[in-house]
């Protein structure tokens, strides 16, 4: 098959557990780009969290695409935005007040800065470091918020995450959803947003048949993308539901699973 796009989740997929891209994975993906295959970084991260990886993969040189916020914002590597889907401001404030009663650390961003009520809150420092973004502390997020965010990020104790997710799901209006993006993260965003729709939209914009795409992922939020792609590939470390939704499985993110799968498919 003439594959033209490789869509890559980042955490737990493209990067290993140290948040690094292995030399073999880097070399393999750059070789794919040289063959004319375009890379798509498909992540729940804000756009700044993709920039370092974009540069390592030389994506600007080869016309790569950045899908941030689970597909809530899609841009090219020069910063030109194809589209962006935000939450309603009044609704977001109402959700923030509801979340004050739950055991979660809420992290809001405007694409440049994170905003929290406690800089020492659960996973705040981790998120800032992971995305290379600074953090500002505010007294109350619901009172302070004056813009429409694309998503709300919630850091949750993994032992409580399923229970908390269900409580939030029962509260949300029908046009919003809450999804697990890591063992300790929940994200609230528009139901119109998912990585699968994002991949389809990118293919439409680039005039590429989505059947000529490969997607790699490991978490619940990757499932729509794995289903939409011509071939959806789950990492060995993926959740069981992700593996069931994929066309094939590869080695883990710590074992160069991406180069292994691309070799098996004779892409590289």
What is the strand and helix layout of this fold?
Layout: E1 5-8, H1 23-34, E2 38-42, H2 48-56, E3 65-68, E4 73-76, E5 81-84, H3 89-99, E6 104-109, E7 113-116, H4 124-131, E8 134-137, H5 141-144, E9 151-156, H6 161-171, E10 176-182, E11 185-190, H7 195-206, E12 213-217, H8 223-228, E13 231-234, H9 240-245, E14 248-249, H10 257-264
Helix pairs in contact: 1-10
Please provide a written account of the structure.
- The chain is of the alpha/beta class.
- It has two domains: 5-84 and 193-264, Rossmann fold (3-Layer(aba) Sandwich), CATH 3.40.50.1000; 89-190, Hypothetical Protein, Haloacid Dehalogenase-like Hydrolase, Chain: A, domain 2 (2-Layer Sandwich), CATH 3.30.1240.
- It is 32% helix and 24% strand.
- It has ten helices and 14 strands.
- The strands form two sheets. Strands 5-4-3-2-1-12-13-14 form an eight-stranded mixed sheet, sandwiched between helices. A six-stranded mixed sheet has the order 8-7-6-9-11-10, with helices on both faces.
- Helix 1 packs across helix 10 (257-264).
- The longest helix is centred in the N-terminal third of the chain and has 12 residues, at 23-34.
- The protein is globular and about 55 Å long.
- The two termini are 12 Å apart.
- The mean pLDDT is 96.
Q: What is the H-and-E element order?
A: EHEHEEEHEEHEHEHEEHEHEHEH
Question: How is the quaternary structure best described?
Answer: single chain
Major sheet description: 8 strands, mixed
Share in helix: 25-40%
Mean residue pLDDT:
96
